[in-house]
Inverse folding.
């Protein structure tokens, strides 16, 4: 019996090491995950205290504070999970279905309400996403310190308060980072190892799920194509077919929702048309004109609008760093996300869109290697996380 056990262990070394490896990763990411939630929930408690004491004259502030983690777009996801799309009208079609469907299923299994289930799902997804980022950075660089720095930055950068709310961003990050792990398997430290075939199939599944989760999920086509082109000479015909499937999968995920929209509402492009309305992201526009318009908002005391401007500069700088220090698929994906974020008629939610371009966080982490710089940046990021969460809870900033 002992010999059989030893033989099984020798045959499956990955299984015997899986639990210790997973435990080590979770220990590395649990602290930043907890700190971020302490900051955001503490900020929400402060917002409740202030509203209850001063009773602001603007009804929207009080309502937004009491919505808490289900405010803003999270309320839409909750309503979709509870009622479906039809009773909510065309405006609900801006929100792709996978996150709400998963939240509804989780609520059914656990007995929680739809809203509580969505918040639980978002926070669990955030934990998984940070763990995957840790694994990805460590695999790419061989630097565990850099990996820890990256997960701290991802967890407490100011826009990351949405990862604590009932938003789909954390779930999208799980699929996006997981897709990169699949397409970059064997590419860490500058060389290719192992058989790449199975990775394309995993990337296809993750890309399909991403395309059903958020419109930005379709942009995973970009890094998949970049990696496929890079490896084309070493791939067999079967691997090329699998890579093509992986490239098509995010489009297929979106196509499923658009096809459902065509069947139910008679317009396949209606979800995209609603998102392109002026009151939301808006149609295609000149980014420079949009930046000038938002800069004027500072003069007219539109604080939420003006706060986007420094972030645009930071993001552009991080894009340059990303292209210089990380593989081309990272820079291409981040660039695609940022271009979409800048293409609308307003910059509302620009920071949240940029957070989905997770390679920007990796670029930022690579810039703050000195301990004193790292501590200063993380302290400022944590303070910014509290400020941005407070502004959003008080109806002063669109997440």
């Amino acid at each position: 019996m002992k010999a059989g056990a030893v033989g099984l262990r020798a045959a499956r070394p990955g299984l015997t090491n899986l639990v210790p490896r997973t435990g080590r990763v979770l220990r590395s990411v649990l602290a930043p995950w907890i700190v971020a939630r302490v900051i955001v929930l503490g900020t929400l408690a402060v917002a409740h205290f202030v509203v209850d004491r001063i009773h602001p004259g603007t009804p929207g502030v009080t309502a937004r504070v009491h919505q808490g983690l289900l405010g803003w777009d999270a309320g839409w996801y909750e309503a979709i999970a509870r009622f479906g799309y039809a009773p909510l009208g065309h405006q609900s079609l801006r929100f792709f279905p996978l996150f709400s469907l998963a939240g509804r299923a989780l609520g059914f299994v656990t007995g929680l309400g739809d809203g509580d289930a969505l918040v639980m799902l978002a926070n669990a997804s955030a934990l998984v996403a940070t763990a995957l980022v840790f694994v990805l950075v460590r695999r790419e660089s061989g630097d565990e310190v850099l990996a820890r720095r990256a997960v701290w930055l991802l967890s407490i950068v100011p826009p990351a308060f949405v990862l604590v709310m009932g938003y789909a961003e954390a779930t999208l990050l799980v699929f996006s980072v997981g897709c990169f792990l699949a397409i970059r398997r064997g590419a860490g430290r500058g060389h290719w190892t192992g058989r790449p075939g199975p990775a394309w199939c995993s990337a296809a599944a993750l890309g399909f799920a991403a395309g059903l989760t958020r419109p930005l999920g379709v942009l995973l086509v970009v890094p998949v194509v970049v990696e496929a082109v890079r490896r084309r000479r070493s791939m067999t015909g079967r691997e090329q077919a699998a890579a093509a499937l992986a490239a098509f999968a995010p489009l297929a995920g979106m196509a499923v929702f658009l096809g459902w929209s065509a069947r139910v509402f008679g317009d396949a492009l209606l979800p995209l048309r609603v998102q392109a309305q002026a009151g939301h992201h808006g149609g295609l526009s000149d980014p420079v004109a949009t930046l000038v318009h938002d800069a004027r908002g500072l003069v007219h005391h539109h604080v939420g609008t003006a706060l986007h401007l420094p972030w645009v500069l930071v993001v552009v700088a991080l894009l340059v760093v990303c292209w210089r220090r990380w593989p081309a698929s990272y820079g291409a994906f981040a660039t695609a996300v940022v271009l979409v974020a800048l293409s609308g008629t307003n910059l509302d939610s620009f920071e949240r869109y940029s957070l989905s371009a997770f390679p920007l966080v990796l670029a930022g982490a690579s810039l703050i290697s000195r301990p004193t710089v790292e501590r200063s940046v993380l302290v400022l990021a944590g303070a910014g996380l509290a400020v941005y969460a407070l502004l959003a809870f008080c109806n002063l900033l669109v997440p």
Residues 1-15, 190-198 have pLDDT under 50 and may be disordered. DSSP finds 19 helices and no strands in the chain.
